[in-house]
Amino acid sequence: MNNKRGFTLVELLVVIAIIALLIGLLLPALAKAQKNAKSIKDGAQITQVHKAALIFANEDKGKLPKPSRKNRLGAFISAGQPNVQMPGQGNEDYSRNNSRNVFSMMVAGGYFNTDILISPVEPNPVVEEYRSYDYTQVNPAADSYWDGDGGTGSAIGYAEDGYMMGKMLNNDTPGECHFSIAHLFLCGERGKITWTNNQDSTKPVFGNRGTRNGEYTGDNYRLSPMLRAHNNDREWHGFIIFNDNHAKMEATFFPNSVAYECDNINLSKDNIFYHDFQCQTDNNSQGRAAGDSWIGITIGNPQEHNATAGFDKLDEE
Q1: Would you call 241 helix, strand, or coil by DSSP?
Q2: Count of CB atoms situated within 10 Å of the CB of 146
Q3: Cα distance between residue 212 and residue 273, in whole Å
Q4: Has residue 158 got a pLDDT over 60?
Q5: Which runs of consecutive H residues, i.e. helices, occur in the chain?
Q6: Total domain count for the chain?
Q7: Which domain holds residue 247?
Q8: Fewer Cβ close by (within 10 Å): the C or N end of the chain?
Q9: How far apart are CA 165 and CA 174, in angstroms?
Q10: pLDDT digits (tens, 9 = 90+) for 268-317
Q11: Is the pTM of this model over 0.70?
Q12: 314 in a structural domain
């Protein structure tokens, strides 16, 4: 006699409830694992960008990529003659050392493609990959070394509000930005000494973006979209790449290994997202000419001892 029977309705409902409970328990863990994987990928991408910069340095006397050294000012040839634009000659044109040009120059040189510049955990909706890079614009004979170079100096075209919506190229949609990665500001002593392949394990050179002016209290911290990039939305966490190419996930703007000393200021902790040291050699640039660590997005037309930072808009702006 066959005594086999199927599930009763109650038993079936119990099984379904158990499955639903297990799914409810597993989904948050899976989501967290997925976000952790994206975070790890983010650190790897920024590390690769620095490795590419180190390869560049091997080809330029140990200097990491500086647009001012690639597209220089006109060179003196002879008395009574105008200066002439030519590759590898002339003084540095510091006005070219903004973030848009740094990354575009490296793409033009084949060091990486545009996709690596976008973080897998990018929280700002205006940041997206530029997919129409025009390599035909790379023409040193016409004084154009990367797409968007503009030869003798075309308009850079950042958003009028001056926030971190600057464009990597001249001909893209206003209000967009095509790189997630912050890098060392190239003005002052930091651009001359730190921005090299010196393998200094205490000097940050690339990383995730910080908050506006490196602030860690008030609305400029609380409402920064960068708090959503890693871990949670209440505290900043980010990868910082040091000049020996080691990456570290930091939860502070004052990493333990980073310090600076100038003039009569003793060795002190250094906010890596702000020019917070007023040295006598600053040339009235409020710390921008010093050699302390200061990473972020450079916009506009920098000078040898000065630069302007671009910021993410706050969540409620």
Answers
A1: strand
A2: 27
A3: 8
A4: no
A5: 9-58, 67-70, 99-108, 188-189, 219-222
A6: 1
A7: 9-295
A8: N
A9: 8
A10: 899 999 998 877 555 555 667 778 899 999 988 999 999 999 888 888 77
A11: yes
A12: no
